[in-house]
Every structure is written in structure tokens, then in C-alpha cells.
Design a protein that fits this description.
By secondary structure, the protein is α/β, with parallel strands linked by helices. It is built from 4 helices and 3 strands; from the N terminus they run H-E-H-E-E-H-H. Bound molecules: nicotinamide-adenine-dinucleotide (NAD).
Length: 105
């Protein structure tokens, strides 16, 4: 519970990009991040993921989905990055911490 509270404190209101967020791991991470109060943008080309994995979040104001290939949309990515609380290592570590805190509640 302490880890969960700490994760909420760190993530509440932050805008986080989850690449591959329509996949198995990504969509579970998205759920955890939203539950912890983060705002989430998913970038996914749906090559192996499914829109149905994220459809439950689609109507939320704190969620957005961009269909695209991370390799082809560097211009888009840099636009997205300007809107994010984006620090790659931070985001990765926080994402893992958030997922663990969420799953251990
Ligand atoms: N129920 C289960 O236990 C279950 C279900 C599904 C998968 N798995 C396992 O989970 C493991 C990994 O799952 P995962 O979530 O890493 O795989 P995934 O394929 O579900 O997720 C990867 C996501 O990245 C996206 N993607 C790939 N290349 C991209 C690109 N260039 N640009 C944008 N998006 C891109 C895909 O469309 C997909 O949504 C696998 O071993 C799989 O077998 C388990």
C-alpha cells in the first residue's frame, strides 16, 4: 500500500507516452498508469496489438490513442514529446514501479 501511495504521488497528473500500449503488456501498463492518476497517450501501429485492448479507456479525457509506427512518425513523436512529462529512463522506471505498485495493492 505504501508503494501504491508513493506511485500515486509521483504520477498523478503526469502525461506519459506508452508505445505499444495496445499490446498485452502495454494495455495493462496503461490501466495501471490511469488508475494512478497519470494522463496517457498510446502510440501503437496495431501490428500485433488490438484496439479492443484499449477500447475501455477510449472515452476518458485523460487517455488518447495515436495509431502509428514509432519508426515512421519521428515528426509526430517529437510533437507528442513536447506535450509529455517525458524523460525516457524516468518514464521506464516509473512505468515499472507503477505496474508493480498497482498489481500489489
Ligand atoms: N494472456 C496472456 O498471458 C498473454 C496474452 C498476450 C501475450 N502474452 C505474451 O506476452 C508477451 C509479450 O507481450 P507484448 O505486450 O510485449 O506483445 P504485444 O505484441 O501484445 O505488444 C506489442 C505492441 O507493440 C505494438 N508495436 C509493435 N511494433 C510497433 C511499432 N513499430 N510502432 C508502434 N507500435 C508497435 C504492437 O502493435 C503491440 O500492440 C509475449 O510473450 C506473449 O506471448 C501473454
Amino acid at each position: 500500500m505504501k508503494a501504491f501511495r508513493e506511485a500515486v504521488t509521483r504520477l498523478k497528473g503526469r502525461h506519459i507516452l506508452v508505445t505499444g500500449g495496445a499490446g498485452f503488456i502495454g494495455s495493462n501498463l496503461v490501466e495501471a498508469l490511469l488508475e494512478l492518476g497519470a494522463r496517457v497517450t498510446v502510440l501503437d501501429d496495431l501490428s500485433t496489438g488490438f484496439e479492443k485492448n484499449i477500447e475501455e479507456f477510449a472515452s476518458r479525457a485523460d487517455f488518447s490513442f495515436i495509431q502509428g509506427d514509432i519508426r515512421d512518425s519521428l515528426a509526430d513523436i517529437s510533437t507528442i514529446q513536447q506535450q509529455l512529462d517525458y524523460r525516457p529512463l524516468y518514464t521506464f522506471e516509473e512505468g515499472i514501479a507503477a505496474y508493480l505498485a498497482f498489481s500489489k495493492r
